[in-house]
Design goal:
The complex is a heterodimer. Chain A is of the alpha+beta class. Chain A contains six helices and five strands. In chain A, the strands form two sheets. In chain A, strands 2-3-5 form a three-stranded antiparallel sheet. A two-stranded antiparallel ribbon of chain A has the order 1-4. In chain B, strand 3 and strand 4 (about 360) form a beta hairpin. Classes of the chains: A alpha+beta, B mainly alpha. At the A-B interface, helix 3 of A face helix 1, helix 2, helix 3 and helix 13 of B.
Amino acid sequence: MSIAQEKTIPFAWKKRTSKADVIPVHRARGFGQQAFIPAIVKGMAVSLRHFFDNVATRKDVATIEYPEEQPHKPERYRGLHRLMHREDGAVRCVACQCCSTACPAHCITIVAEDTGNSNEKRPAIFEIDELRCVVCGLCVEACPCDAIRMDGGIHAPPVERRVDSILGKTDLLKRGTLSAAIQGGNSSDEWRDQPLRPNADKLPSDQ
Amino acid sequence: MDKLKNSPENQNAFVNIGMLILIPIMAVAGIAAVFVVTLGWVLPGLATGDFQFFDFFSWHFAWDNPWIMSEWFQGLIKFVLLLMVVVMPFASLLTWAERRESAMMQDRVGPNRAAILGFKAWGIFHFMADAVKMIFKEDFVPAKANKFLFSLAPFLAIVPVFVVFAIVPFGSDICVGHLFESVPDAAVCTTRVTMQVARLDVGLLFYFAIASLAVYGTTLAGWASYNKWSLLGGMRASSQMMSYEVTMGMAILGSFLVYGSLEPYAMALYQGANPLHWGIVTQPLGAVLFFVAAIAESKRAPFDLPEGEAEVVGYFVEYSGMRFGVFFLAEFIEVIFAGAMMTAVFFGGFNVPFLESAGFNFGGHALALPHIVVLLIQTTFWTWKIVFFCWLQLMIRWTYPRFRPDQLMNLGWKQMLPASIANILITAAVVLAMQASASGQ
């Protein structure tokens, strides 16, 4: 439509003017472009290359065949919880409720009981609902005595019933090991005179 | 991951590619053996008692069953053989092959876990697992669906694609009684067995007539489901299939002019052992147009609008279990049939380069072969060509993006149909000119 014609139409749309740079993009024309023949050939070449490469050598296959092949887990991977042991195999946890307080998902339930020792409690019940857990790791940060860890490198397993996802003290202790940290709370002040880490020269596995 | 990548079975590229080619060749050789031995040796032997070299059957019984060689019984046996040995195994294996091949194209592994007694075979048993799953799934029929039409639709979809296999020639005629000698001249044959269920003079017209019945299956499925999405899918399916049937018929008309026949066996004979006389050389444009239209007919990507997963799930959105499985199977059988048609019309049918009825003939250097070996090679090659076209259709299905409905109609009516008509006109002119020059005018 020429400009002269445009003026004769009373209610014609006015051509908008903008200061922005407008780059008109024209659709590809011509038989070759419209029939997509170059694109068809190129696309098929890519498919064929990948097909024969992967059939021959599995060169590009990115699949991790999960149960047989484990994906790489970073050093600070947070996985399923575990409770650490003392030297006599008892639980390190002193039922201080730090972790359950820190937990944003309220998935930790601790019921404390008396040990007979005047300065320590221990958990009678220690339960973590792994379905509720948001795997933030705040419980591990909060623990003052290295009792709870998430470093096993195990992902929370799928369960058939919801109740199966609630792990009790026995389950959590099963994956636990001896901690290298010193259990605090000696009744006397003698510990101040002792070396800081009596077993520092030994690895936990040696003990 | 590194462990798997460096394991010895993944190191030798030649072994893997070789297995990809050799194992199907061995399998299709077995298929060919079933055809040739059953039709050329077992059935004539049962009919007349003459098992040629194997006389030990004949002194035991007195055989005289002429009805075995009657046309209807032979046709029945051939049809059952074709369906049970080629069509159904290929169709069910294609369900696995499609996922596996697409995985290989997309740098994945694909289904490889199904195993029988720990024998995995690249997960080939997934087709059995699929069948078991589909059989045991809930057979759901929507409350307001028309139950009769709803149940009828899958059969209307699958029966036509079975029936059209009747016209596919899968080997040259068997010369009964001369199986173990070289047959250079067909005149010695007294009894012939055709390697084709029905040799109809209308040939491919029969195919077009029956294949257009498949539209009823999809449209009825869409209508009877009482679901607007399935109705949309059914409408799309009917419009697409009807549009592309026109192009398909037009694309193949040029070949009719060249071969002078509508009958697939006559077409195969015309094409002969010289690849330069095959349809792909004489009718390249027709071959491409026919192949594209055949893919559009089978309603697979890039023409999968009737079952577009992203918008209308399609005419079988309400179908579950084995009813859906029947639609699924019909689609794969259409894939095989498109391959069979491409083979018959454009790729020499059962013909093998340089293989004539007496044996190989490399321009003077002849190698005489027994009749049965020639037949075996021909049927093996025929099956191998079909396998190739199935593979190619899977590659196409997983490579190209799908069309929009208007693009689909534009391609069908505005580009492919004019191209196919131009192909007919040019072919007709060339054929006329050659006839005129041959008759010396």
